[in-house]
Amino acid sequence: MVVAAIGRGRWPGEVVASLGPMTAALRSTGRIVQVPLNDRLMVTGLDDRPLPKAVCDAGLALFELLAYETRVAAPARHRAPTSGRSAR
Q: In 3-state terms, what secondary structure has residue 46?
Protein backbone atom coordinates (compact mmCIF):
# COMPACT_ATOMS: atom_id res chain seq x y z
CA MET A 1 0.00 0.00 0.00
CA VAL A 2 1.18 3.50 -0.86
CA VAL A 3 -0.42 6.73 0.34
CA ALA A 4 -0.34 10.18 -1.26
CA ALA A 5 -0.65 12.76 1.52
CA ILE A 6 -1.69 16.14 0.16
CA GLY A 7 -0.36 19.17 2.01
CA ARG A 8 2.46 20.11 4.30
CA GLY A 9 5.66 18.13 4.17
CA ARG A 10 6.07 18.05 7.93
CA TRP A 11 3.31 16.76 10.15
CA PRO A 12 2.66 18.46 13.50
CA GLY A 13 3.64 16.41 16.55
CA GLU A 14 0.00 16.01 17.54
CA VAL A 15 -0.75 14.35 14.21
CA VAL A 16 2.24 12.01 14.43
CA ALA A 17 1.30 11.08 18.02
CA SER A 18 -2.23 10.17 16.94
CA LEU A 19 -1.29 7.91 14.02
CA GLY A 20 -2.79 4.45 14.05
CA PRO A 21 -0.57 1.40 13.63
CA MET A 22 -1.07 1.05 9.87
CA THR A 23 -0.35 4.70 9.12
CA ALA A 24 2.65 4.67 11.44
CA ALA A 25 3.99 1.57 9.67
CA LEU A 26 3.49 3.14 6.24
CA ARG A 27 5.22 6.30 7.41
CA SER A 28 8.17 4.46 8.97
CA THR A 29 8.75 2.46 5.78
CA GLY A 30 8.61 5.50 3.50
CA ARG A 31 5.33 4.58 1.80
CA ILE A 32 3.62 7.89 2.47
CA VAL A 33 4.52 10.43 -0.20
CA GLN A 34 3.91 14.10 0.49
CA VAL A 35 2.28 15.81 -2.48
CA PRO A 36 2.63 19.57 -2.08
CA LEU A 37 -0.25 21.96 -2.55
CA ASN A 38 0.17 24.35 -5.42
CA ASP A 39 -1.87 27.55 -5.57
CA ARG A 40 -1.88 27.70 -9.37
CA LEU A 41 -3.12 24.13 -9.72
CA MET A 42 -5.79 24.69 -7.08
CA VAL A 43 -7.15 27.65 -9.05
CA THR A 44 -6.67 26.62 -12.68
CA GLY A 45 -6.36 22.84 -12.53
CA LEU A 46 -4.32 21.07 -15.16
CA ASP A 47 -3.58 23.02 -18.29
CA ASP A 48 -0.91 23.11 -20.99
CA ARG A 49 1.80 24.38 -18.64
CA PRO A 50 4.29 21.95 -17.11
CA LEU A 51 3.56 20.72 -13.60
CA PRO A 52 5.64 22.31 -10.83
CA LYS A 53 8.83 20.36 -10.09
CA ALA A 54 7.74 19.46 -6.54
CA VAL A 55 4.48 17.96 -7.84
CA CYS A 56 6.35 16.03 -10.55
CA ASP A 57 8.85 14.75 -7.97
CA ALA A 58 5.99 13.50 -5.77
CA GLY A 59 4.35 11.83 -8.77
CA LEU A 60 7.60 10.09 -9.66
CA ALA A 61 8.04 8.90 -6.08
CA LEU A 62 4.49 7.48 -6.10
CA PHE A 63 5.08 5.79 -9.44
CA GLU A 64 8.33 4.20 -8.27
CA LEU A 65 6.77 2.90 -5.04
CA LEU A 66 3.76 1.50 -6.89
CA ALA A 67 5.96 -0.08 -9.57
CA TYR A 68 8.07 -1.73 -6.86
CA GLU A 69 5.01 -3.03 -5.00
CA THR A 70 3.58 -4.36 -8.26
CA ARG A 71 6.82 -6.23 -9.07
CA VAL A 72 6.98 -7.71 -5.57
CA ALA A 73 3.32 -8.78 -5.52
CA ALA A 74 3.07 -9.89 -9.16
CA PRO A 75 4.56 -13.39 -8.85
CA ALA A 76 2.04 -14.40 -6.19
CA ARG A 77 -0.90 -13.09 -8.20
CA HIS A 78 0.15 -14.72 -11.46
CA ARG A 79 0.79 -18.24 -10.27
CA ALA A 80 -1.15 -20.95 -12.04
CA PRO A 81 -4.11 -22.16 -9.99
CA THR A 82 -3.67 -25.55 -8.39
CA SER A 83 -6.30 -28.24 -8.71
CA GLY A 84 -5.73 -29.55 -5.21
CA ARG A 85 -4.50 -32.92 -6.53
CA SER A 86 -0.89 -33.94 -6.29
CA ALA A 87 0.90 -34.54 -9.57
CA ARG A 88 2.01 -38.16 -10.12
A: coil
